[in-house]
Amino acid sequence: MASRVEVECLDCNQRTPYHPTTQACPRCGSAWREARYALTALPPDYPQAIARRPQTLWRYLDLLPVRALPTGFSMGEGGTPLYPAHNLGMMLGLPHIYVKDERQSPTGSFKDRQAAVTVAVLKEAGITEAVVASTGNVAISYSAYCARAGIRLWAFLTSLVPPEKMHEVAIYGTQVVKVTSTYDQAKQLAAEFAQRRGLYLDRGTRSVPAVEAMKTVAFEISEQLGQVSGSLPHAGPRPTAWRAPDWYFQAVSGGIGPVGVLKGFQELVDIGLVRRVPAIAGIQTAGCDPMVQAWREGRMQATPIASPRTHIATLSTGDPGRTYTLLRQHMKAHSGGMFESVTDEEAFRAMHILAKMEGISVEPASAVAFAGLIKMARAGVFQPEDVIVVNCTGHTMPVERIILGEGWARNVVLSAQTADTPQEGLLAALSQVADDRFPHVLVVDDTEEARRLIRRILQAQGNYTILEAANGQQAIEIARKELPDLVILDLMMPELDGFAVLDALKANPDTAPIPVIVVTAKELTPDEKQRLSGQIHTLMQKGEFMNDELLDEVKMLVK
Ligand SMILES: Cc1ncc(COP(=O)(O)O)c(C=O)c1O
Ligand SMILES: [Zn+2]
What angle do CA 111, 51, 122 make, to 5 degrees? Predict the structure, then answer.
């Protein structure tokens, strides 16, 4: 059984026992309070004890404001996998990128942690009705857990929430209030409603169970990185059982995720389980980025965005209030990190990259974090040895058409006659399918890994038929036979090198017009540069080019 938890007022430091119906400090009236635990009372073999517990967030019960393991409504929340993103890492030149896959939560987002812990708290306090305001996913999570726990739920949703998410909320029997306005106003209305009726309201970063729940993301990441720590750089002189990453990435709306995660890492530092709190990268959409603007201008307070302009409604908190100030203080004083924004288009592009290169399909809000990572990698923010964890926060709705664009499916219409001559009809239909002619790109490189990277980069963003040659001789043969639309050529290869391949291509009238992009790790001498000039379209240095630059070149050369 966990010990009784106290809360400490962030404004006057008054400590009181925690109870969910007390929402403010009895001394100064502040609503900003944090849970405090007797961390020093944890047994020395705490990590070993935890390792034996089930893989859910309840393994950290000692550090949650819940007295006993909940019974009856748990759905195995928490315990989501952490795995490397090798291909993305290769593309960005950052070999230690890890994905914390919160899509694998019961309702498909990391908000299940918040709902599960809060519902446990409500049940222990005998509370049977609650209110949330939401940009979608909080309401979905709460709806599922309240349904299981028999708690009546009111969800105030901004009308910007896509209909699919609203339907998902409604199916659980939640009282849905659709507010035709911004999320900030929906939040105000929910607060008013809860106050008048005397109902429990999730107030985001001011709600103790919500923040405490998000800590478990930090706990799990540290425990999971600890298990692979042998393969990570900088193990450090004093080994710790668990391990914090150098960076934690998350798409940010209200900011409860980073607030909880920071608190979680700080507690682990205080216990001695990890050495440091990671730098936080909070990524927002450019159409609703109050934290980013304040950060760039070095302000302590964020200026609210009155009307968010983004398709990504999940991240449409226009007024982050004091949450920004608290995050900033912590980041400046302890963890480091930064806020950055990405456009909706950059997020949509990241969705494609992540799905095609890593097999991970996410909703746009999660993609915002990955788009931020790509942007910051390109800006040279990281060292190659940095261990970076991206919270893949969720995927609670199917991919919308606007993200796929045109030509995402091949349409085959089988006519009624097909039924009479099934075989012929099907074959004719199949030839229709095969008829598409995508540009052919020949990738020449003697290392398999380099070919795979270029193939993945191209396939992640366009329709190309990729041909591969592992040496110069093969390259010349394939080029003559297939007459590709473009050749991407490595220079340093044994036997016939790139220069020789280029000479051979240019000497043959059939292959001479094919444009060539040279991608090389070699520092070229002036003489070598002279040999290439006029023969190739672009020269790219390996390790320097990023997906977009290569793609832009490819798109320019083949239509
Ligand atoms: C999928 C997803 N990603 C990111 C966020 C933003 O998280 P936070 O509330 O920590 O700002 C949300 C918030 O609802 C979300 O649902
Ligand atoms: Zn106080």
Answer: 35
The residue among 30, 1, 3 whose CA lies nearest residue 17 is 3
DSSP state of 514: S
Q: Which atom of ligand 1 is nearest to the CA of 255?
A: 11
The two three-digit tokens of residue 458, written as one number? 């191209």
Which H or E run includes 155? strand 152-158
Q: Which residues line ligand 1 (CB under 6 A)?
A: 109, 111, 135, 137-138, 251-257, 314-315, 363, 365-366, 393-394
- Is residue 540's pLDDT more than 90? no
- Cα–Cα distance measured from residue 375 to residue 251, given in angstroms and rounded to the nearest whole number: 13
Rounded Cα gap, residues 233 and 189, in angstroms: 49
Cβ distance 373 to 342 under 8 Å? no
What is the atom index within ligand 1 of the atom nearest the CA of 134?
14
Q: How many Cβ atoms sit within 10 Å of the Cβ of residue 449? A: 9
Length of the chain: 559
Average pLDDT, the chain: 92
**Which residues, 6 or more positions from 431, have their beta carbon under 8 angstroms from its beta carbon?**
none
CA dihedral 167, 170, 175, 177 (to 10 degrees): 0
- Evaluate if residue 428 carries a pLDDT over 80: no
SS3 31: coil
* Residue carrying structure tokens 């659709």: 178
For residue 1, the model assigns a pLDDT of 38
Residue 334 has pLDDT above 80, yes or no: yes
Nearest CA to 305 out of 295, 159, 294 is that of 294
* Residue ID of nearest Cα to ligand 1 atom 10: 257
What confidence score (pLDDT) does residue 235 get? 59
In this prediction, what percent of the chain has a pLDDT beyond 90?
A: 77
The 10s digit of each residue's pLDDT in 256-292 is 999 999 999 999 999 999 999 999 999 999 999 999 9
For the record, the structure tokens of 461 come out as: 């963003």
